[in-house]
Amino acid sequence: MNQSLSPGGKFRAAITANQPLQIVGTVNAYTAMMAQKVGHQAIYLSGAGVANASYGLPDLGLTSLPEVLTDVSRITAVSDLPLLVDIDTGWGGAFNIARTVKAIEKAGAAAIHIEDQVSQKRCGHRPNKAIVSKAEMTDRVKAAVDARAEEDFFVMARTDAFQKEGLDAALDRAQACVAAGADAIFAEAVHELSDYHAFTQALEVPVLANITEFGATPLYNCETLAQVGIQLVLYPLSAFRAMNKAALNVYQHLLDDGHQQEVLDTMQTRMELYEFLDYHAFETKLDQLFAAGKNL
User: Fold this and answer.
1) DSSP 3-state assignment of 229?
2) Each residue of 4-22: pLDDT tens digit?
3) pLDDT one-digit tens code per residue, 53-101
4) End-to-end Cα spacing for the chain
5) What percent of the chain has a predicted confidence (pLDDT) above 90?
6) Any bridge partners for residue 86, and if so which?
7) Residue 123: which pLDDT band, with cuts at 50, 70 and 90?
8) Among 8, 69, 128, 269, which lies 20 to 30 A Cα-Cα from 287?
9) Model confidence over 204-245: pLDDT tens digits?
10) How far apart are CA 161 and CA 115, in angstroms?
11) Rounded CA separation 118/42 (Å)
């Protein structure tokens, strides 16, 4: 990846180089490091991930900009992969959205997505969502686009209108967001490949498919999505769900068995952890510093 590019430039280059680009959820700094070292080209910080993993809260708009910024800063400090950040509804009106975008960009992220739910939002794959008017959503997009410092910083508009109002209304809203300056469209809770195809045919910007487990969207593979024109494929909490299941299994075995022997094969080894952290380079540096001190 070209290190001379801005974070937003890296994200745009990754979209061009990958058909489609997989964007994997990373709930903390260490998972971002793992994603990068195994070869992923873009990473994601989910609003639900921040709420669930960092604060033990449901995905109901309960976290704020400072709380999300904490996780953004931790991730960008250890990974130079382009980071897409979920900013929910932007945490307020036009000035709040502008402040959010400026802060997220300054923290080193490459991209944000902002959605059209009301401020008392819900998970995109839950029932009874409520969305704002098309005019209010386009104002959100305009505020976000206007606030970015670098033109390459990527502003994506997410619409939840498909589930609420149907395909035609969602397409109309997506087109309005693009006209307002959105660089891509996040089509949430879409069901059929034909619906994704309708989005990609109607829009001249990349369309994102959210392939989240146990939700409204089938787990289509990348090749199938590429055939209908999808350029971005998001896996927001896949690793997080696997981590949780593994941790729960360990906790249960410790309680039931009094030891962890039966679950060792599900654990990352100490040496594997050290390899991802580049632990030995830190130890070598310490040895050099201590050796220099002894020679004074």
Assistant:
1) coil
2) 899 999 999 999 999 999 9
3) 999 999 998 999 999 999 999 999 999 999 999 999 999 999 999 999 9
4) 42
5) 88
6) 113
7) confident
8) 269
9) 999 999 999 999 999 999 999 999 999 999 999 999 999 999
10) 10
11) 28
- CA–chain centroid gap for 272, Å, is 25
- Active-site residues: which are they? 44, 59, 86, 88, 113, 115, 123, 158, 188, 210
C-alpha of 152 from chain center: 18
Q: What's the token pair of residue 218?
A: 């089938």
What's the rounded Cα separation, in Å, for the pair 213 and 175?
A: 27
Position 6: which residue type?
A: S
Decide: 236 and 214 in contact? Cβ < 8 Å: no
Q: Using CA atoms, how far apart are residues 213 and 191, in angstroms rounded to an integer?
A: 13
User: What is d(CA 210, CA 198) in angstroms, rounded to the nearest whole number?
Assistant: 16
Helix (H, G, I), strand (E, B) or coil at 235: strand
Q: Is the dihedral of CA 229, 148, 121, 28 positive or negative?
A: positive
Q: For the CA atoms of the chain, what is the radius of gyration? A: 21
Q: Is the CB of residue 52 less than 8 Å from the CB of residue 33?
A: no
With beta carbons less than 8 A apart as the criterion, state whether 79 and 124 touch.
no
pTM beyond 0.70: yes
